[in-house]
Amino acid sequence: MTTTDSSETAEVPKGRRRLGDVVFANSARGAGLLILAILAGVAIFLIVQSFSSLSANEANFLTTTEWSPEVEPGNGVRFGVLALAFGTVLAAVIALLLATPIAIGIALFIVYYAPRRLAALLGYIVDLLAAIPSVVYGLWGLVYLVDQLQPFYRFLETYLGWIPLFAGPVSPTGRTMLSAGIVLAVMILPIITAMSRDVFAQVPQSHREAALALGATRWEMIRTSVLPFGRPGVIGGAMLGMGRALGETMAVAMILSPSLVIEPFLLQSGNQTIAAHIALQYPEANGEGVSALIAAGLVLFAITLAVNMAARFVVSRRKEFTE
Known about the structure:
Blueprint: H1 19-56, E1 67-68, E2 78-79, H2 82-113, H3 116-130, H4 134-148, H5 150-160, H6 177-201, H7 205-213, H8 218-247, H9 250-255, H10 274-281, H11 288-317
Antiparallel strand pairs: 1-2
Helix pairs in contact: 1-11, 2-3, 2-6, 2-8, 3-6, 4-6, 6-8, 7-8, 8-11, 10-11
């Protein structure tokens, strides 16, 4: 004689989901669609607001280095974003090249070398750096850093001046693209460090123990197990940091001298970024000048979007490092 358990729960009919699952799925879907809608709204705004100035421009917007968007007697409207785009990318690349190796080293030290108390203190300090306003970094760079870098710049000119990047003469003010890149590197350092620290801490313990059991040193374990696992996260953090460097305004505007030139000389005054140019020109702009600045913002929007899409592509192409 068989007995049935009176406490047996009824099965959920196939094709039906619990109310909580439906609400959560729709909420997540709505959040994702909201992001796309905001992105599309920003793009449409930039395109519409910049159309009037672009249609009146008598020069090629993408290849011209002039900036005369205001209508003047006897002169047509001529402005382009080539020099600004060059300066924007150059400053961001310098910051990324300087900050990424240092950030990886700090993250590895915090996770695998530092004592627990010291690691917690260093993590707190790194997070605190991200909370400092950009104008404070700009003041620090303008008042203190540029003067302290002068001897280093003269050293680079003396011994590496044969490289075009370090060709002289050195700017007497120190307000160069390299100075701006160093300040931006300090600003994006906590972003890359935080991302790298989190991903390095998530390396499976079995991977690390297996490497050590095979006789690997701590550095060999990091090189063969930790870095391959954390590479996608490091790339993602680096691209997030580069995104901030591309859009940084006040710090760059306070350090660089306004100049619409294309020069690869890091020790000389010159170059300007899109964001800093918009911040400096907007108070005095009106009419077509405002529309031209919005057009420059559209180019910055496209550059940032392209960088983030490229980062997602690189990360997605990496094979997952699983057990």
